[in-house]
UniProtKB/TrEMBL annotation, chains A, B:
The lineage of its organism: Eukaryota, Fungi, Dikarya, Ascomycota, Pezizomycotina. SUPFAM superfamilies: Amine oxidase catalytic domain, Amine oxidase N-terminal region. Its cofactor is Cu cation. PROSITE patterns: COPPER_AMINE_OXID_1. Its EC number is 1.4.3.-. This is Amine oxidase. The active site is at 334 (proton acceptor), 418 (schiff-base intermediate with substrate).
């Protein structure tokens, strides 16, 4: 037995945690104490503490021994390390952002650095919590509000934001900015959708002095108003109207005719969980979680064969395309600037997931650096996704059909207005889909009554939803039957039409390009460009081709901002769809380690590939950047229906047949005819089956009307 | 009450069928009798009889009156017409392919033509059934088999195929070809997967004389064997091995650890069906079916507002990319050459669909032109598809989340080896997804032992799965609040970087292009090209933009064969992603009406757009062609896991808010914790909720860990 996130404080036995287990609250507290001691007499303000994952050199042999049942006392077990991010306050009240690694088994600090001064730390929970009050108390802000001639009883709501790009971050103070709204003055409900009442000001706070330094005025005009900031009506929200989403306030009431649809698993779920180890339908993997990436997957095997070492979302950035200042600073890096794990929802049974649900908790650090458990951050459950495979022999009428059962590992984050649902969906045919859903509330700014804008859409009276992009990057560290892998792509091209080799002009060939050096590549759907990660040292015994996984990525629009603009320079990762780098420990961050208030992507994928290392038959990492260019429609307000983007990783000559061919095709006997349930007599009765085959009465058969 | 497909022979009342109801068996029989009479003394061999849908001029006002409750005796009710396809055999045994329209209410033939001789009729059920026997009895074929030195007890299986492209179809006889295999000699099971035992011959039959005219020899060599046809081993299947998919024969047995997942709808389904009219979650539409297109959707409204007049799959073609003759003739047009409806599966409760299922039957004509019912060709049911929308107010912790409930309308076809699952998926936010899944068995040809090929993949010993494309076309006849619509596309482009208008280089604009004349356009994902169908006469009251639907299509590779090759010329529809034509009655066929054994696409979308008609603010039709370039992997054998392609049609400023904002967010109380089900004690208990809001104890709340 190993300790698990369900048992964060007390080990269930005397055995050590698994190297990939999250830190326990106890371990976090140890790290805290070590850092406090080490930094005396300076005082410490903690930001984030998380597991420092073991280096691959130490972890990989451990995992191999573990999966082969060969762990013993002599096995090199990686030490338990914690990475602690914090500020130190020196005696003269100067602040320095620091970074330590603590061995929580020996209570020793093994690494310490003061982070270079041109980097700003990510936002902390305390800063996010304190920001609105700092703004509210500011005289400068209060005067700005007076200018807006708001109704007397309005309650102002302030969404804290990172500042965005900064041309000289080393010489500028640590800033935050706020987007400002009011609740619906008619109700002032605490859950009123304040995004329907945007105010034309953005306060900027110096977070070192904790003072509002300026209040930017926003452009609220239309197509002919250029960059003017004084066009709004006297009562800045006089032309606004409520747009509520909480059920008791939805205008017109709720639908009454939706009947329940329940998922029952009378024999329980088909998965098994021990600590963070999951086993399901020949898959075996571990689930991690940290404050920055949210849920991570590790040591992913199918039928005992390794496929992926580690998969996670690495970064996301949401640049806005409105050229009117200060909107050029609307560009959050939600992983680097704050942390997706920090923003994660505690999920609710029967709401976020249906059926038999396994929840995983997170263990993170609080504002004082102490360990805390956040419950139910990941929900895991099975789901039916229609037909998995089917074939009917039209001669005999015998149909064999199986259902496509998925295992969903999902987490949801809230970033002020927006929500993102991230899911890793495993299927029985060796496939893994990485699915991203955007929902929540679009970011809104004011627009004058009767006007329209080139920079977004009017989604409600007085409300402009600005055009923007969601630019994600997923990090895939493959382990296709071993760490030595190659990334290549294949394209399908028509052959020249000639009498000798292609006499009828129908032939096409598949051309392969190997990515031999670290670099990038883009999607090319018109050539059916398919990326593959292969192990050139292991050939499929049937086809003779290297075993591998393929990766058909839908082509999406990437970063629109000029590459040399602040927006563009900060997100070089978003310039190309695929980046391939040579593996280095701790290189997790597509846009670099420190993104907040930066002016350029440092240490991100662009810098990684510039090392020009060999990536053929090497330990490599593949990064996939994709975008959703979002030019909002009225239907996206007040809360947008999910936009779904899916990456599919599928075996390509990894197996010797369809790995799901052995999925049983048992008929689900609880399904019912609509007429039976509705009490209608159905004139023609039920489908008659051909003579049953010897597979028994529960086999799926069907009459095929081929002729 | 109107007659329904569930009551095909007997009207439940004296009222006439709905104009969009399929023909009843009675009506088909009437059409048969009229044609027989009209063609005397010639005898008739029937092919297909189906509803001739009313012209839009007559139907549209009827539908409008119907939806407004204004149908009365004076309403112009379209006559019930049947389109009958058949051959006449004249006294001197010459055959002519003919086409009639019969008014089945008055028993009068209202149209008759002899189809031009350069067109071949689609394959009939009888031809498909008879073909293998014709081949088996042929001496030429038997001698060809002897040359293959097969084991004594083999049972040869012959898959009937259309002949493919023909350079002078008018002067060549009607042909069919056969792909030839054997059952597994070890078992000779009737459901043995014969595709694992391909033979290197293709017999060609003259279907007029019903004789094998030649037996083509196939190239079975590898990369260095060019077009040689004599390289196969003496026993042509000696190096082959079984690859079974029927459960009792799957090598290694079936998985034993998959537990049931049931969908229960204790209060029944949320949809209502009367005849072919479906109502669900503000959607209202009619379901049709015919022998060629399979399931069709008509008169699609949401909250009483019209969106689509008619949607269907129009054509699909599967060209093979192997240049070695005669593989250039592997190109089926499964709708035009035979009919998707003809190939449709009768679906089985609990196998093809889960939950409370409504089945629709088809009424088609048999080989003698008489009406017959084919049961359960369409299954319709609800499905949960995860989170629909969610927002959490991080300040209060209150989360509101709704489930994304879909209504699936699905049919499945079997085309000898391949299966396709077609589904129309409605969602509660006004969206309609058109989803295509390819499964079944890849087409296989022999390959010599130990060799590999440029033209496909060895997926099993001796089995080459050739590279090919699946090229589909969906026909969308919009009715966005009226018949006068426009198709346009929008792209997002970066603005020039300059001090006056874009000082920080982040701005981007949306550029619109209207398709004013009939023509084509392609996907351009790097520009985020989004197609929209709008009604320029109706503006959204919130945004001021024309109401519309958008259509983000994943870019796919289109036809690879040379445009001037036989393969390319026959499928001009597959050269571009989007075609916009001016509506004309009965223009349903993207590749033209008669595709079988053709040499060029006639009367398809290319010819339609060449009319150069005005398409701005007109009654238009949008055709979407998409492809799956399929270069098989070993995992695609013996039956391939579904490949899924989805087109999303979503409202774009059609509504004044998220149309699903009023979906209730009731917690599903039947979901369970994994630990409870598994008998594990969970250390930290359940999630605690913030104080419940007044929405009641079943509201979905959640603790948000925003900070």
């Amino acid at each position: 037995m190993v300790a698990s996130p369900e048992d964060p404080g007390n080990f269930l036995s005397n055995l050590a945690p698994h190297p990939l287990d999250q830190l326990s609250t106890n371990e976090i507290d140890i790290a805290r104490d070590v850092v406090l001691q080490a930094r005396l007499p300076a005082s410490v303000v903690f930001r984030n503490t998380a597991l420092e994952e073991p280096t691959k050199k130490v972890l990989l042999p451990y995992l191999v021994a573990e999966r082969n049942g060969k762990l013993n006392d002599a096995t090199l077990r990686p030490p338990r390390l914690a990475r602690v991010l914090y500020d130190i306050v020196t005696s003269d009240a100067a602040w320095e952002f620091c970074d330590s690694v603590v061995n929580v088994e020996t209570s020793e600090e093994v690494f310490f650095e003061v982070v270079e001064h041109h980097y700003h730390a990510p936002l902390s929970g305390d800063e996010i919590r304190d920001f609105p009050e700092i703004v509210r108390k500011s005289t400068m802000f209060q005067e700005a509000l007076i200018d807006l001639s708001l109704p007397d009883n309005v309650i102002v709501v302030i969404d804290p934001w990172m500042y965005g790009g900064c041309s000289s971050p080393g010489s500028e103070p640590r800033y935050m900015q706020g987007l400002v709204y009011t609740r619906d003055p008619a109700t002032n409900d605490p859950d009123s959708n304040h995004y329907a009442f945007p105010l034309p000001i953005i306060p900027v706070v110096n977070m070192a002095t904790r003072e509002v330094v300026r209040v930017d005025k926003l452009c609220t005009g239309g197509v002919n108003d250029g960059f003017q900031t004084d066009t709004h009506p006297q009562n800045a929200i006089g032309h606004c109207e409520s747009a509520e989403y909480i059920p008791e306030l939805v205008s017109g009431g709720l639908r009454q005719d939706l009947k329940p649809l329940n998922v029952h698993q009378p024999e329980g779920a088909s998965f098994h969980v021990t600590g963070n180890l999951v086993q399901w339908q020949k898959w075996r993997f571990r689930v991690g979680f940290n404050y920055r990436e949210g849920a991570t997957l590790h040591d992913i095997l199918y039928e005992g064969r390794s496929i992926f070492y580690r998969i996670s979302y690495s970064e996301m950035s949401v640049p806005y395309g409105d050229p009117r200042p200060p909107y050029h600073r609307k560009q959050a890096f939600d992983f680097g600037d704050g942390g997706a794990g920090r923003a994660t929802n505690s999920l609710q049974l029967g709401c976020d997931c249906l059926g038999v649900i396994k929840y995983f908790d997170a263990v993170m650090s609080d504002g004082r650096g102490k360990g805390m458990v956040v419950q139910n951050v990941i929900c895991m459950h099975e789901q039916d996704n229609g037909i998995g495979w089917k074939h009917s022999n039209y001669r005999t009428g015998r149909a064999v059909v199986t259902r496509n059962r998925l295992l969903i590992v999902q987490f949801v984050i809230t970033l002020a207005n927006y929500e993102y649902v991230f899911a890793y969906n495993f299927d029985q045919a060796g496939g893994l889909a990485i699915e991203t859903r955007a929902t929540g509330i679009v970011s809104t700014v004011p627009i004058d009554p009767g006007k329209t804008s080139l920079w977004g859409n009017v989604v409600h009276p007085g409300v402009l939803a600005q055009n923007h992009q969601h630019l994600f990057c997923v990090r895939i560290d493959p382990w296709i039957e071993g760490p030595q892998n190659t990334v290549l792509y294949e394209e399908s091209h028509v052959l020249p039409w000639n009498e000798e080799t292609n006499p009828h002009g129908n032939g096409y060939e598949v051309r392969q390009t190997v990515l031999k050096k670290s670099g990038w590549a883009d999607a090319a759907p018109h050539h059916n460009r398919v990326f593959k990660i292969v192990n050139p040292n292991h050939l499929n015994p049937i086809s003779g081709r290297p075993v591998g996984y393929k990766f058909a990525l839908p082509a999406t629009q990437l970063m629109l901002a000029h590459p040399e603009s602040l927006m563009g320079k900060r997100a070089a990762y978003a310039m190309h769809h695929i980046w391939v780098t040579k593996y280095r420990d701790h290189e997790y961050w597509a846009a670099g380690r420190w993104t907040n208030q930066g002016n350029v992507e440092r240490g991100g994928v662009r810098d990684m590939v510039d090392r020009g290392e060999n990536t053929e038959n090497e330990d490599i990492v593949l990064w996939h950047s994709f975008g959703l260019t979002h030019n909002p429609r009225v239907e996206d307000f007040p809360v947008m229906p999910v936009e779904i983007y899916t990456i599919q990783l599928k075996p390509a000559d990894f197996f010797t047949r369809n790995p799901a061919i052995d999925v049983p095709s048992t008929k689900n006997v609880t399904s019912q005819y609509y007429e039976q349930v509705s009490g209608i007599v159905r004139a023609n009765g039920h489908t008659k089956c051909n003579e049953q085959r010897s597979s028994g009465i529960n086999g799926c058969c069907g009459v095929n009307n081929g002729v």
